[in-house]
Design brief:
Shape: globular
Number of helices: 9
Order of helices and strands: EHHEEEEEEHHEEHEHEEEEHEEHEH
Radius of gyration: 20 Å
Distance between the termini: 20 Å
CATH topology of the largest domain: Alpha-Beta Plaits
CATH class of the largest domain: Alpha Beta
CATH superfamily of the largest domain: Pseudouridine synthase I, catalytic domain, N-terminal subdomain
Largest sheet: 9 strands, mixed
Strand content: 25-35%
CATH architecture of the largest domain: 2-Layer Sandwich
Length: 257
């Protein structure tokens, strides 16, 4: 299985953060089959190559774990950086790190599949299974993510039709803002005042749903992910901040290709 070096290292549980492991790589501390590699984006076959950090053989954590959590607002879907800590930020990983059933190495290797913004709540999958994570986030597989959206003002039928066809939004790429046309989505109006909607998208671009509505002159006041494929938050009966450790089959059955 071919991986980027930083992807492989993040799944070994040997490093405290992505920033830490990237620093180690660029400092020349990591080698693959005896050759020092300083590019974190270097692609190699993890099944055939041996990776060393300061002479220590590294291996991916073998125990796969799948955590389905109801993420509250106010939590980042990433590890905290020193600057985050200075700002008093909180991470969704804080909600699971005291779980004694999860080994230390496994805990370090966990990542969020399809991050939710700090001010967005709802269903979030945390795992150390990179293969499954890639499948769920790759747009070509079209796994639906459904959100409950509350808008600042009523939406018109015209705007709904425009959004369902795809709209141009601004996305940051390599430090520059570029125009990007979203893929088609499905919208269901769920309130008589035309301010509450269910939106199903097959992508996971940064702040995509919020930017879609900005593109038609509206503003999202509240955003909650309520489903991943056919896995629905309401069926899990999870209060905000609570989670379950699920079987891989539950995730696969809910997100068939």
């Amino acid at each position: 299985m071919k991986l980027r070096l930083h992807q492989f290292l993040s799944r070994t549980g040997a490093f405290s953060s992505k920033k830490d492991l990237i620093h180690r790589v660029r400092s020349g501390e990591v080698s693959i089959d005896g050759k020092v590699v300083v590019n974190p984006e270097f692609i190699f076959d993890a099944a055939k190559c041996r990776v060393f950090w300061k002479g220590r053989l590294l291996q991916k954590v073998r125990e796969s774990i799948y955590i389905v959590i109801n993420k509250p607002e106010g939590y980042l879907s990433s590890r905290l950086t020193p600057n985050d800590r200075r700002l008093g930020k909180r991470s969704v990983f804080e909600l699971v790190e005291e779980d004694k059933s999860i080994g230390k190495a496994t805990m370090k290797a966990l990542f969020c599949v399809g991050r939710l913004d700090e001010d967005t709540s709802g269903l979030l999958l945390i795992t150390n299974d990179g293969k499954l994570g890639s499948r769920l986030t790759d747009p070509k597989h079209g796994v639906k993510k459904t959100y409950l959206v509350e808008l600042q003002k009523p939406i018109s039928s015209k705007d709904v039709a425009e959004l369902e066809k795809g709209v141009v939004i601004g996305l940051e790429e390599n430090g520059r803002i570029a125009g990007y046309k979203t893929k088609g989505c499905r919208i269901e109006v769920v309130a008589a005042d035309m301010k509450k909607l269910k939106v199903a998208v097959s992508e996971g671009r940064k702040r995509e749903v919020r930017r879609m509505f900005e593109a038609v002159g509206n503003e999202v006041l509240q955003l909650r992910r309520v489903a991943l494929g056919s896995l629905k938050l309401e069926d899990l009966n999870l209060k905000k901040g609570k989670y379950i450790i699920a079987d891989r089959k539950l995730i696969e059955d809910a997100t068939p290709l």
